Structures are given as C-alpha cells and as structure tokens.
Write the structure tokens for this entry.
Amino acid sequence: MIKRYFSLLLIVLISLRLSAQVWVVPAENELRKSPFAFDDASRKAGSEIYNASCKSCHGEPGKNNPIPLVPPPPDFASVKMQSNSDGALQFKVTAGRGPMPSFKNTLSATDVWRVISYARSFNDKYVQEVSKSSEAGGASVQNVKIQISWLKDKNQVQASLSAMKDKVNQPVAGAEVKLFAKRYFGNLLIDEARTTDALGNALFNFPADLPGDSAGHVQLIARLTNEAIFGEAKADSVLIIGVPTYRPPLNEQRAMWNVVSKTPIWLLLAYTIAVLGAWGFIIYVFLQIRAIFLAGSKKDPDSAE
Amino acid sequence: MASEVNTGFLNDKKLDSIAADILRPVGITQGFIVWMGFLGISLLACIYAYYLQWDKGLIVTGLRDYTSWGMYIANFVFFVATSLVGMLISSVLGLIGFKWVKPIARIAEIIAVAFAAIAGLVIVSDMGRPERLPYVFLYGRIQSPIIWDVTVVTTYLVISALLYFLPLIPDLAISKGRMGHTPKWLQKTYEVLSVNWIHTPQQYKILLKAVRIMLILIIPTAFAIHTVTSWLFAVTLRPGWDSSIFGPYFLTGAFVAGSAAVVIVMYFVRTNYKLDKYLTLHHFDMMGKLLVLVSIVYLYFNINEYLVPGFKMKTAEAIHLKELFVGDYAMMFWSVQLLGLIIPIILLLFKVFRKPLSMLVISIIMLIAAWFKRFIIVVPTQDHPFLPKQHVPDAWMVYHPTIVESAITIGTIILAVIIITILVKFFPVIPIWEVAEEQHETDSKTKE
C-alpha cells in the first residue's frame, strides 16, 4: 500500500515538475525560420499530417479537447501554442519531451514546417518571416532522385542519389541520407546517417533480425537530412529483406467470442453430446409409444374372439 | 412409480367409482364456457396490444437503450421458473418414492407444459423484429447462452409433454367407455390418443420404462433450463447479475414459484370438481411442508446473494444494492422478501395454515411475489449501467413499463391459464389408474 502511495506521489511530482519546467529551446533553433512561404498548399498538407499524427493527442484545434495527459497537450489555436516562435515549434516537434514524442524520424523537416504552417492558420495576427537563405535561391540541387537497393552479399542497403544536371543524370555526392524501416508506430532509424560517395551511393548496414511481414517484406524510407541544399527528396520502397514474421489475427483461433464456425471444440462436443443424448432418449420414448400401439393392435383379434 | 403394475385393479369395483368421480367434470360445461369466454375476451384485448407492438415496434413499450429487457424478460424468467415444478414433483419426489405426490403429479406436469410452452412466446414478445426469429436458428452461435436457452427450453417442453402424456394413456383407455356425457369429438380424441391401449402387462412394462427414462432425463434438463436462464444474466459483469450462485439461486426460486402454482391449481380442481376425496387435506399439508422447505432453501440463497455483496459494497454493486435496500426499489424488494418468503415460511410452519383456503391465499401472494422478484432481478441492474447515462431524452433514463407491454405480459399469463384450463377440463386431472392401483394394493394388503 505504502509502495503504491509512494509511486503515486512520484508520478504527481514528476508531472508537476514537467509542467512547471520551462521547455528551453536553444537560441539557434528559436530563430530558425521556414525555408518556404506558408500557402494554402502547405496548410492543406499540414492539416493532413496533423490529422494523422497530432490530432489523437492535441484534439481538434480551437475546441480545446486534448486527451487528459499531464501536462495537457496544448490546443493548436491556444495562446500557449501560438506564443512559440516558428523555430521553437520546429524544435519541439522534432525533439519531443515527456509524453510528446519526437517526430525526428517520422516527419521530414519540410513536413514539420507544413504542420507549423497549418498551426499558424489558427492565428490571425501571425505574419510569417521566411528564411533568408531560401529567399536567396532555395535548394541548390533540385529534383534529387533516390533509389534503394539491396546488396545481398554485403548485407547492406544502398541508397543511390542522382539528379538531372545539364540535361544529364548525374550522381549526387556529399549528401547526408537517413534510412528508416517503417514500423507500426513511426519509423525506425536503420544504421546511422550516411553521406553519399562520389558515385552518389550511401551504404547502410542492415540488421539480420529485423522482422518483416509474413513474406519478409520491409518498407524502407530514405530521406535527405539537408533539405535546404538538396530539396525534399524521399524514396519509399519495399524489399524482401526482413525476417518473415507471422502474427495471427486475434480472431484466428477458436474462441467463445468468435463466429460459430470457430466454436471451441470442447463446447461443440459438450453441446452436441448433450443435445444428441437428450433427443436420443426422447426419440426412443416416441418409439416406445409406437411399440405400445403395435402391442395393442396385435392383441386386437384375440380380444375380439 | 413402481417398476411393475398389478393389473388387478382393472377388475376392482373401485375403479368404476374412481373413474366416475374423476371423469364427471370432464367435458364442456356452462362454467367452462363462461370462464373461457372471459379469458378469451381478455386475451383479445392483449392481442390488440401485441398488434400495436408488431405494427410500431418496441417504441410502444417502456424499453429503451438502458433497460432493454424489462418486464418481458422478468416474465420469461418467471415462466421458466414456474414450469420447473413438474420436475420437482413427479420426478424428484416421485422417484424417491413419495406416494402422496401421485394424484398431484399430473397437475404439476400440466403447469410445466403450460408455462414452458408460453415461455418461448414470452421471449418473442421482447423482440422488436419477431419476423427475424428464424435467424436465431440460422445464424445463432453455439457459444451464446441464448442458443443454449432456446435448446433446453424446447427439450424441456417436449419431455414435460411426454411426462404428461405417457401416464395419461391408460387413463384415456379406461375413460373410453365411460364418456357418455361428453361431446363426440372428445371421445374420438381419446380414442386416437390412447394408442391402442388394452392394459396388457407388456404395454404397462413399456410404459413404465418410458416414463422412468423421461423422469430421469427431465432432472438434468430442468437443471439446465433454469441454470442457463440464470447464465443469461450471470455471464455478464453487471452489478446484481455478476454472481456465481445464480444457477442454484434461480433453481431454488423456481421451486417456490412452481409449488405455489401447484397449490393454486390443486385448490380450484378440488373445489370446482369436488375431488376432495383425492386431493385430501393430507396433500395440502404435504404441499405446505414442501413450500416451507423450498422457501427456506431459497431464503438461504437470497441471504447469500444479498448479504455477501452487501458486506463488501463494491462501488458499482453498492449503488445497485442501496437502490434495492433503501432506494426506489426498496418497497418492492422488501415486500417480495417478506410477503413472498419470510411470512409464508413462518405461517406455513403451523398446521392451521396448511389448510386449503389459507394455503390458496398464501400461494397466490407467493406467486405474485415470485413475479416481482424476477422484475427485481432483471430491471434495477439495467437501470444502473457502469457508464453515466447521457445524451438521451429524460424519459429514457428510468424504465416505466407502459400499458401496452403490461397487457402483452398479462396476455401471456392468460394463455398459460387457457392451456391449463383446457388440459384440466378435457382430460382426467388425477391419474385414475395410479390411484386405483394404489387403493387396490392397500385394500388387498389390509385383507391379508
């Protein structure tokens, strides 16, 4: 009992501390600005990301209906949320803290900016300042394409980057790439961030024990870290490189709550035996009534004599 | 029931007088026409109520989201409970060898058949879309206690009907030549139903064997029917239902209701048909003692069912129990416990109260209390869901039965009474051959 009170006290103290603690944003992040101007397209894309990844905790913006966490996830339309600078929001979404997960692996930098673009649509007074470097010219290499392939003999995944330059497809060297495997809840970073060589290839060591689906399929995502220089490039491909893993669906086994064709064997037997047993005797007794009838009609001529 | 029949009673002169006594009321009499007319007209009003429900759906009842079972299912439990007495009297007491149950065994079986037959109809009355009844059989899941219930109710009805019919066969044959005062079609019915019975030892042997099989088979079936009915509640997690003793609790409660019903029918048969020679004061005395016994057992289960959770008072359970003990249902709850159990037990301990008329009054009160007892088991639990009641109209918050559903419920009771009346009126209500055989035996013993 005392242990329980103690742990309860601990939880309360930790949550109080968390809610009281100011979320310090490093100065350079604080001042960071979006590389692109927020427009309807970015707001629309942001709202889609919001519905998929943020709404389950933060609720519907403006309705103040987050899930009851301590501290409560702030409403996107609230003053608490809107008083953050763009850079602070970008930092907090990326880094995460306590119950707020880090979206570093799940969302690309551009996608995070899109969510912020959506968040700002609930603030009439907001005036955007766009990053100066992007105003200067945006990404220096454009339309980077990433191809993911499996090097079986080396147990490695290779990401090959290329871009059209002077109407010729050329490898992109010196770009930092991250490789992720898609899991149920977010993306799992595979190996570390790697930089492409002169041929535009980055090699990732792939773990031998990563579970795939029942056929071993693993969905891989490669993404560039420096979107300011290389733009937003992303590759998404499925390779058969995981350990085949079969997870039976919950309704596969026979169970009391399953459909009738999945009745537990013991119940099927008990029910059938009980019904057949009882009705066997009943039918037997009906046959006995017939026997009484026959016994009576057999004696009939005798009694008539 | 003896394993062999001494057919000597067939030539005993006493058989004639016994048969004459028991067959005298058989047939259509003025009293019967008046009584059936009354029942028939009342039933018509109830059928109109059911027409309203058929036409508009369950909206004409007080049943809503929270209380979806209400009066109908309470009525169903009452019907199943009352029908169990057939098993108690003819089977349990008969197999043990109590001779005094012989003249009332058939009354008990009549009640069993009537109430089991209507129990199925009562379930249909609770269905908003009764035309989908076949779906129960087409798409039912063996895992569901509802399917078990449908199965055992049907089985119990057939076994009870056989236990009514089998010992009736010799009586039908005995009656054949003694039915001059009855309509032709009834004589013809006797002819067909007596299945060529000519009292041969072989026929008696087959009959006794068949009856014995059914007497044994009906015990597990009767246990199953009411235990499964209790499981419809007990397999849920709801306060008031989430109990491991619900099976025996229902079963023992059933014997109280059924025995009371037997006493009521016994009384009317005895006085209306002037059969006090066969339904003697001794029978009422014994039934009184039986009522005390089954009531004490049921009281014991009641104490368990309410005292144990009442001692613990778990949050949800406490809301439910307070509602019963001191809340909205307190009046009904304590009336049922006092009038339906405690006072009858005390009164029936005294021989003065084990007389026909006082037992009739006590039994009627007990039977009414038994009906309300089922209401208390079914309804208050549904009135207290775990999650708060919200976003529904005020009228849905508390269950108030409407006139329509009350009429339909009364209609089912009228139907059971009609079945009982027909069986009691058109067929020998006391087993002629068994009574004659027993008298013959005691006579020949005293002669020796």
Q: What stands out?
A: The two ends of chain B are 23 Å apart (CA to CA). Chain B touches chain A at residues 139-143, 148, 151, 155, 158-159, 162, 166, 169, 195-198, 200, 202-203, 206-207, 209-210, 213-214, 217, 220-221, 224 (CB under 8 Å). Chain B has one domain: 7-440. Residues 7-440 of chain B form a domain with the Formate dehydrogenase/DMSO reductase fold fold (CATH 1.20.1630.10).
